[in-house]
Amino acid sequence: MITNILRFTTVFISILFCNAASALPQVSSDKALQACIEKTAQKNNWTTLEQVTSLKCHKKKIYRVDGIKKLSHLKKLSLFNNKIEEADFTGLAKLEELNIARNQL
Q1: What is the DSSP letter of 6?
Q2: Which of 19, 81, 88, 96 could form a disulfide with 102 if both were Cys (CB 3.0 to 4.6 A apart)?
């Protein structure tokens, strides 16, 4: 019984530590965009905003891209088929590829 409790505690603490280590700071107030950033970061084991160099968020019902400039190392950004009405990408100096087709711009 004690062994099982210790195993559970160890696993639980490991999960908490891994989640805390992979969490990125908040980038956008748009929940769909933020979720896409977090999912991409988790998939690639990125832990800092500087590691985010490519982002593909197709058909995610993204309305705003506020805060996207915080991803200053982005080289590729694809926000195809969302609900974006206005966007400013001027702060993304490293951006080489941008796809914002099928939005409301």
Answers
A1: H
A2: 81
The DSSP secondary-structure symbol of 68 reads: G
Q: pTM of the entire structure?
A: 0.78
Q: Name which of 34, 66, 64 is nearest 52 in CA terms.
A: 34
CB 67 within 8 A of CB 61: no
| DSSP codes of every residue in 18-58 | HHHHHPPPP--S-HHHHHHHHHHHHHHT--SGGG--EEE--
Helices and strands (DSSP H and E) totals, the chain: 2, 3
pLDDT tens, position by position, 58-74:
999 999 999 999 999 99
Task: Indicate the number of domains in the chain.
Answer: 1
Structural domain boundaries, residue 32: 25-99
